């Protein structure tokens, strides 16, 4: 299954693993794929620690996934520190929204964080917080690929990363987004179908993938949204994708730093249990349906705000859920794709990579048999 | 791409074409696939005429798609004629819903039907109207396959059709539905992803197909939802499907009896232009977004009723839209899947079948090259 982007990156198989856990990223890179660390939520200092760890534990290369706003400058935020920017934004959040979120968590008995675990709220989600992350990445030669989770990055960021010998790409949920990425000169796109976990569009993978491939010509297009099995990798490559970009799959591996109670929730869930909801981040994001998502859907409750304001409302819930996963079982933030229905046991990351390759070859063999019958 | 179900049916390629137009069904069957006529909306007498025409124009075999309610008996409708049943149901429709539908159509200047074109409302959508259709099918030996669009058919219908030497299957949108079909002894399932046109579930094809294939074992599973290109057929077969079930694709072929204005709407639409709406049939159904679907979505308007009551509200709109497609351009019933974004020109049905086969082979070749590189 080796495609051209494998040669450019020096990896064996075009299996890309998006994960917030460095152990998973390292395991996938060392198994022949490419681990991609999600950097959102890390300060520049924390990211430096993570990438140093990856440098030590990865034999080849790895990637980093950022949230780079397309309006990197402007909007009157020049010169504001992240803290000042956040203070400005905080004034735009209605108290009723904060109260509603607080009530959902309290009604479910989710404890408050201890005061010593207070946190910055918007790390990596605004222009002023992402620039220092990029500086960090540029100091780590094994960090060979940068992906942007939301929109086309600004020209200067693209140039800066490409000039350093790295590849930069971005996610897209439609042909239009893909063409924007191509016109901006990105090296690859990640085309994510609506079934994918986290932020996603409305168009499903089977329809999206071949259209993006046709639209962007010889620019590599990685298939995302729904992939948890090598047969799906074969399907993606048959439709012209240059590789498979996976995310949900790595929530139930041994190396994942997902609390056991939350991991069990993923293992138990079926493909019917997800919903595209704006209730955590303000943008449509696929996650497990639960009391939190239902509460924000109800008719007589506040409507979710936009991004990043809804995140300021919900981030306390994310942190409390992460800290107290048992108590937050029914109101936790569980971003995951419909492929959750295929994630039925805990596996080792390296075994997952091997399984994907074996299933891929089996699927190719199935086609060959049909054609030679 | 010949699979076992091809041998059972005596067809060359496992390309199934669901269509309401006999000319399309005949063209696909004669090109080596299987045309499947949607029988909903036909009286038994009309269906007899259609199938006689198909007998004359199809060299091999064809299929018929019905809407057989799973509760075929009972619910206090025994002995009621279709007209009596409809009169009973009509009493359950609030006048406010009828008025709202009427207002949408009138506001858009869609003329009323001439009095001589009055119509029965619920043909084929209730137990009492579908039984005579089955009798008709059993008299046509070339009608070799029966598919049920909604749910598992009752045991006596399954037995009746299988005893006659025909295959009977049903659509499903989840593993659970597929297992119900298997346990009822059906011959095949059509697993339809959420991207598909018409009634559909929430699970996308890439995630649904491999799960259903694994769940039902050696029972043939046809892949539906999003297929408009042979690369997608290759993807489906790579994931273990026994064939491709297509529908939307046949709305923009030369032989389709779709009014030119409506066909142009399909040709112009992108994959972002569809919505899953209950506004026409009462069940979630994928169609083009327009002023009608938006009107029923708005906050201060009636909520769609269930099936079949919403159909009684909306059927006049279907008929007026079909009769006056120009005027109804923005309020017409345009059931179609997300693959509409790939339907960009009118083609001949036989050419579509040939194209699907050629693209399929190209996709298989792409995989072979990757694996032998």
TrEMBL record, chains A, B:
Keyword Flavoprotein on entry: yes
Top-level taxon of the source organism: Bacteria
Gene3D superfamilies: Aldolase class I
Keywords: Flavoprotein, FMN, Monooxygenase, Oxidoreductase
GO-annotated molecular function: monooxygenase activity
Cross-referenced PANTHER family: 2-NITROPROPANE DIOXYGENASE, MONOOXYGENASE RV1533-RELATED
Name of the molecule in the record: Nitronate monooxygenase
Species the sequence originates in: Nocardia tengchongensis
């Amino acid at each position: 299954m080796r495609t051209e982007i494998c040669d450019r990156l020096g990896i064996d198989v075009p299996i890309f693993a998006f994960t917030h856990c460095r152990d998973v990223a390292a395991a996938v890179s060392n198994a022949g794929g490419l681990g991609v660390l999600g950097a959102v939520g890390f300060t520049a200092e924390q990211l430096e620690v993570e990438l140093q760890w990856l440098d030590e534990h990865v034999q080849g290369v790895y990637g980093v996934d950022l949230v780079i706003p397309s309006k990197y400058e402007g909007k009157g935020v020049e010169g504001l520190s992240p803290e000042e920017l956040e203070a400005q934004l905080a004034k735009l959040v209605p108290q009723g929204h904060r109260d509603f979120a607080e009530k959902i968590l309290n009604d479910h008995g989710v404890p408050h964080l201890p005061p010593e675990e207070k946190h910055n709220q918007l790390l990596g989600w605004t222009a002023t917080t992402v620039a220092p992350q990029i500086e960090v990445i540029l100091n780590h030669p094994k960090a060979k690929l940068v992906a942007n989770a939301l929109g086309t990055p600004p020209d200067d960021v693209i140039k800066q990363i490409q000039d350093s010998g790295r590849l930069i790409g971005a996610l897209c949920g439609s042909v239009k987004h893909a063409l924007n990425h191509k016109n901006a000169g990105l090296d690859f796109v990640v085309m994510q179908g609506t079934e994918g976990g986290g932020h996603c569009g409305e168009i499903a993978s089977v329809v999206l993938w071949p259209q993006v491939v046709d639209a962007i010509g010889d620019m590599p297009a990685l298939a995302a949204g729904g992939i948890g099995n090598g047969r799906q990798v074969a399907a993606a490559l048959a439709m012209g994708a240059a590789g498979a970009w996976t995310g949900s799959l790595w929530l139930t591996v041994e190396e994942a730093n997902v609390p056991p109670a939350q991991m069990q929730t993923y293992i138990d869930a079926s493909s019917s249990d997800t919903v595209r909801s704006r209730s955590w981040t303000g943008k449509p994001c696929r996650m497990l349906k639960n009391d939190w998502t239902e509460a924000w859907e109800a008719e007589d409750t506040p409507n979710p705000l936009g991004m990043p304001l809804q995140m300021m409302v919900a981030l306390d819930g994310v942190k409390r859920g992460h800290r107290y996963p048992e108590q937050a079982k029914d109101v936790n933030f569980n971003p995951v794709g419909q492929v959750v229905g295929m994630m039925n046991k805990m596996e080792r990351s390296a075994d997952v990579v091997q399984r994907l390759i074996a299933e891929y070859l089996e699927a190719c063999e199935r086609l060959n048999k049909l054609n030679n019958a």
